[in-house]
Structure formats: structure tokens, C-alpha cells
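Q: What residues go here?
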């Protein structure tokens, strides 16, 4: 299993200059390759393969006076920049052909020197090395001081040096581990309903209050943004103010990530199987609740649960986002009418009283178990339940005038499919 370990590095002023030069060279190679392929496409020429692009953009370009300074940085850094371009094109073509699932991927765009985040990658061919004194030796850059928080489980296959918007430097190592990290099996399983009032509600009744890290830092961020708006564009003071704002946002993101790591680890450790609802975070991020949705960080939390479950031998599953977990009674299976967000509890005609979030978590657990036990991968739906008359979209007199219609039933798998006419 491939894992990524991030550590903070502290380059000297001279090493920062060398890193800036490497960032610039990698960016130029990426843009030159993108420009060459775009020109070939506009002129109706054949797509330039990876080998020809590397020869023209790196090997031959170094011999010209305009690009002779490319030889001042390590060659694998330039090669990895082209590898990123090739990967971006493959993802774009796979998205166009439908081979890549999910959201559509846009074509590659030019990299800007004004981007706040810069990165370069060293592979084993670059012969980087972690020294005995704890420093990281990079070719043509030097020995970087690293703050180690843990030991690497194996020798890294690559390392990426990242400079973020706050001016911090990080070393991201990719390691391959073959160790069996499977946790001892437990009997408990849980379904999780994610929300805004409570970040997570588990099917066992546990409720985790949403920390709202961005809301807590809103006053400080507002003051820093106001201070930034008063600075003259292009001045050194404006650059400092931009960095102060970036550091404040980075502190919020780091705090949220640390909290989510601790919560996800505890959930994976205490449960053999974890099931969550497949939320459309991108769509919710375009609503009036966008700020709260982004502050919650649901997508990052679900990704943590997924990879930790695979790492520690647990089961992870996603329930279809159209599954009516909130409106379905966890006691009798009846689907209620649509409820507004301010309705936090409701009563079922069967006599059960439900908390909105807890009821959703109780429904997510059996739905996830049913999907996992279905070996053919088809969607498992609950049984048919008579629909309330208010939910039926068929004309009231239709059943009287048509002898082949016996009743109206609800398909409980998707909320957008409301009713179906059940013929004999």
C-alpha cells in the first residue's frame, strides 16, 4: 500500500533561492510542453508523444541560449514536470471518452509564477537521500533541515518539495509498505449521518458537535482582510499582508485536518464496518449554506475514513445519495413527505418518534450492509410501502377509470423517483 508522509522542512535563505529556481524551471518546462501541444492541435498536426516532447522541450532546449539555464537544476525535476503534463492530458482524454468516472476534467492550463503554491518532485533517479543526521539531501539544492514527527516505514520512492501560500516548505515522501496493519476484529458496525449542527451522528446514538473552525476564526480573518485591502497593490507591505492572511487560513485548515484525523481514527478503530452517505459536496457548496459546508470538510473526512479502513482491514461503504435516509422511518420503513431543514424531529404514524439525524444514521447502517452483501453490485432497495395520498402524483380519478390499475406504490431507492403505478 502506498502512503504519503508530510514533514516540515526549513531551508536556508540560499536554499530558498535554489528552490525558487527549481520551481521556475519546472513551471517553464510544463508551459513549453503545453504550448507545443496546443500549437500542434491548432495546426492539425499529429499529437506529440511523450518521448518527442521530452527531447524537444528538455534535451534540445538546453542547447539553445534561451533555455540554457534549464541545466542549472536537476534533470528529474524537469522530467517530472512533463510527467505531470502527460498525466493531465490522459485524465482529460479519459474524461472525454467516459473511461474516467466522476466530474468532467478540464484540459491542462498554464502554470503561473503568481500561484501561491509551488511544487517540484524528485524520484529515485535524482538520488535524493535521507542522511543519518536527519537532513534531506537534494541534488543541486543541498541538505535541508527536516522536523521529523515519525519514522518512515520504508525507503521513499519519491519526495515532493512544496511551498504553500503561507511561505512554509514541506517534504512529502511516498513510501510503499507491505506490513500487515490489520486491527483486531470487533463486532460493532456503524452508520454515519453527516450534518452541520452535528458534524457526525452515529447509529449507536453518539453525536459529534461541529467545531466550525472557520466560523471561530472569522473575526481575526476579517481584520486581516481589511488590513490587506488598505495596502497598495504591488508594494512589499501588501505581500506581507497576503502572507499573514494565508497563514491564518492555513492555521484553520491544519486545525480542522488534525481534528478530522483523530475522529476518523477513533471511528475506524472502534468499528469493523463504517457506512456513510455519498454526499454531493460540490453541489451543496453552491447553495446558501456553502460557507458552512466548506467549513465542515465532509469530503476530506470521508476520504480519511475510506483509506484508513483499507489500511487497517476494516469495511467501508457508501450509500446512494438519493436514498431517503432522513424521511424513512427506521422502525416500519414508511417514507414520510419531504421535510424542511428546520424540522429536527418527527413522528411516524406507526408511533415511533424520531430524531432527524439519528434516524438517518439508523437507516444508513442497514442500507450499507445490504449493498455490501449484494455480490452482483446491484442497488438493493427496501420493500414497497403504500404511499400517502399527498405523495401520489397520479390524478385522483385515474384509478377509477382504468381497470388495469390496482394501486400506487413508492419506490424507496431514490428520492427523485417518487411513485410508480403497480399493474396487475
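A:
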Amino acid at each position: 500500500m502506498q502512503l504519503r508522509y508530510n514533514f516540515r522542512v526549513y531551508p536556508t535563505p540560499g536554499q530558498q533561492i535554489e528552490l525558487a529556481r527549481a520551481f521556475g524551471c519546472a513551471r517553464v518546462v510544463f508551459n513549453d510542453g503545453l504550448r507545443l501541444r496546443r500549437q500542434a492541435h491548432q495546426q492539425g498536426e499529429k499529437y506529440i508523444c511523450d518521448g518527442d516532447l521530452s527531447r524537444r522541450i528538455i534535451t534540445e532546449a538546453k542547447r539553445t541560449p534561451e533555455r540554457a539555464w534549464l541545466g542549472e537544476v536537476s534533470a528529474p525535476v524537469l522530467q517530472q514536470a512533463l510527467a505531470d503534463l502527460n498525466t493531465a492530458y490522459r485524465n482529460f482524454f479519459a474524461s472525454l471518452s467516459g473511461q474516467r468516472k466522476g466530474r468532467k476534467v478540464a484540459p491542462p492550463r498554464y502554470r503561473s509564477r503568481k500561484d501561491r503554491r509551488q511544487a517540484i518532485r524528485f524520484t529515485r533517479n535524482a538520488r535524493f537521500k535521507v542522511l543519518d543526521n536527519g537532513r534531506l539531501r537534494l541534488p543541486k539544492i543541498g541538505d535541508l533541515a527536516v522536523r521529523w514527527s515519525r519514522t518512515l516505514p520504508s525507503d521513499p520512492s519519491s519526495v515532493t518539495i512544496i511551498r504553500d501560500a503561507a511561505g512554509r516548505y514541506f517534504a512529502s515522501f511516498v513510501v510503499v509498505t507491505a506490513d500487515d496493519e490489520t486491527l483486531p476484529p470487533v463486532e460493532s458496525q456503524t452508520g454515519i449521518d453527516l450534518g452541520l449542527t452535528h458534524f457526525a451522528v452515529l447509529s449507536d446514538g453518539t453525536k459529534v458537535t461541529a467545531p466550525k473552525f472557520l466560523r471561530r476564526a472569522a473575526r481575526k480573518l476579517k481584520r486581516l482582510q481589511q488590513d490587506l485591502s488598505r495596502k497598495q497593490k504591488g508594494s512589499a507591505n501588501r505581500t506581507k499582508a497576503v502572507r499573514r492572511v494565508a497563514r491564518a487560513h492555513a492555521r484553520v485548515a491544519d486545525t480542522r485536518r488534525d481534528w478530522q484525523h483523530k475522529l476518523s481514527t477513533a471511528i475506524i478503530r472502534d468499528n469493523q464496518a463504517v457506512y456513510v452517505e455519498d454526499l454531493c459536496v460540490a453541489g451543496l457548496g453552491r447553495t446558501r449554506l456553502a460557507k458552512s459546508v466548506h467549513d465542515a470538510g465532509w469530503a476530506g473526512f470521508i476520504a480519511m475514513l475510506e483509506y484508513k479502513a483499507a489500511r487497517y482491514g476494516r469495511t467501508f461503504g457508501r450509500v446512494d445519495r438519493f436514498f431517503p435516509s432522513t424521511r424513512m422511518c427506521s422502525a416500519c420503513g414508511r417514507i414520510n413527505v419531504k421535510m424542511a431543514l428546520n424540522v429536527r424531529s418527527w413522528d411516524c404514524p406507526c408511533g415511533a418518534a424520531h430524531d432527524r439525524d439519528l434516524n438517518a444514521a439508523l437507516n444508513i447502517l442497514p442500507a450499507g450492509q445490504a449493498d455490501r452483501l449484494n455480490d452482483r453490485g446491484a442497488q438493493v432497495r427496501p420493500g414497497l410501502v403504500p404511499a400517502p395520498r399527498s405523495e401520489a402524483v397520479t390524478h385522483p380519478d385515474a384509478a377509477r377509470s382504468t381497470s388495469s390499475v390496482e394501486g400506487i406504490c413508492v419506490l424507496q431507492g431514490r428520492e427523485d423517483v417518487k411513485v410508480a403505478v403497480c399493474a396487475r
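A: Context that may help when evaluating the design: Confidence is low (pLDDT under 50) at residues 375-424. The longest strand covers residues 2-10.
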